[in-house]
Here is the input.
Amino acid sequence: TVKTETGDITADSVSAGNDALLTTVEGNVDAKEVSADHNATIATEKGNIAENSVTAGNDATLTAKTGDITAGSVNAGNEALITTVEGNVDAKEVSADYNATIATEKGDITTDSVTAGNNIHVENGNGTTKAGTLTAGNKVTVKNGDGQIIIGTADGANVSLTNAGQNGTVKADRVLAETRGNSNGTGAADVLLGGSSVSVKSVVNKGGSSPLAISTVGASADQAMKDIRLGQQNADGSYSGGISSASGAVIQQVWTDTGLIYAEGDTDLHISKAVANDKLHVANDEVSVAVYGRTPTHDGETIVYWTNNSRNKPNENMQAWFNRDYYGAGRWLWIDLKGNGAVTMHNGEMIDYNYYRKLYGDYPSLTDMMRKRLDIEISDNEMVYYDRLGLIRYDAPSVQNAKGDEIETD
Here is the structure.
């Protein structure tokens, strides 16, 4: 045990058969190697902590109130806790048999890998959180108040990546989770993605027979996302990444300005509630769907829908929006996009479907009705025409439909 009120603590190696304790009120702690059979605690209220390696049979704790924490490796037989109130955390490798926690209220968090037998919790007030690989036996949680979240792989039974900043972003290469919910994906979410801008290249169901349940939310529950990307569309029009689940996937609700959601391979995708302020693109390898909140345009999608967002705003009925109802709570557009290309949609206005043969649900489309008004309609033995400019019904004049002053007799 080494304690000091002021001054630095420096050592090449510290080893303890029971607990190792290195604390200072004001000063730096620089011990190259610290090992303890039970607990290892390194703390300063004002100063930096720099360690090459910390190993503890039970808990490994590195804490600072004001200062940076740098560690090459932290290994704990029970829990690993690395926190600073105001400062950066750079922990290259962290492993804990039970829980691992890394946090700062004001600063950046950087790690190459964190592994925990139970939960991983990474929390940042307003800086950048950057992690290569996060692997937990139970839950992975990464939470920012603002700033950026940049993750290589988040792998757990349950994964939550959220950023509450108005301009905060979440970016991840891969999210791997297990399905633990019910048979229709209306239970607790297996994956939670939240933030103004969220981009995940691949979301993978790594185990479980029920649908992978995904919940999305904006910077706050009553705000739309600015953009969401699950998968990506390549320059040649093909797709890569996206949602992959042998037992299907359910997005419980998505409210966004713009976005792209791609279901990979044979994945059956169901979106229980979809609201796009501008445009949401949903696709698999068979068919593409556009959901518009603005005036629709011809952008190449096979099926085009429009929703009247002024009538059903999610933030005006938050309870219904988050109630996990499978069929849009009777008011919001829901989409079934099967891996074989079959599409079912309800609670929206179909603009066009380009004569797609595997569409079920809302008929006819608006363009069908417009085309009908530009063609000759044959009814029984009569022919009825439409004015091709004003789309006003036109009946050829006859004695039967003429007004009195229009009839002349000889």
